[in-house]
Predict the structure.
Amino acid sequence: MTRTKQITLCALFAALIAVGTHIKIPTPLLPLTLQTLFVVLSGLVLGRKYGALSVCVYVIAGLAGLPVFTGSALNPTFGYIVGFIPGAWISGYIAERFAPKFMTWFLGAVAGIAVIYAVGIPYYWLMSKYYIGNELGAKTLLMYFVLMPIPGDVAKSVVAGLIVQRLAVFFPDNFTWKR
């Protein structure tokens, strides 16, 4: 794949992440955005290097003042945005290392989202306690930031696996990590 095509795909995924931020699907528990779907898709499709690069472009655009975040860097949820970078990287790593099939892509998406949680939840707790002055207990964090979003994130992981499976059939040469 040419370097121009790789850079174009990175920019496309950065734009998809930005658009996914503003698409909210109402659900009984929490509104579902497509942001994390596009983050893990960037890693699954572009591989670890270019997937993480596309998320870096998104983060830099937001920090530069473009309206791609729903909040600011001082928002307690900004830790999730920071977690997008290693989340895309781990999704891409799994896609590169294991057999190209649905289960690989599904587990890559799940692992990417787990990494986003691992960065976002402690950041949220720290910002709540030290910046906002409203410490949340472990039970509250577990309920609102792990248990409630899990059904939506599992659904997004299934969708990511299905999308990559379909892309691999129709566009097999477009994967930057293709062996």
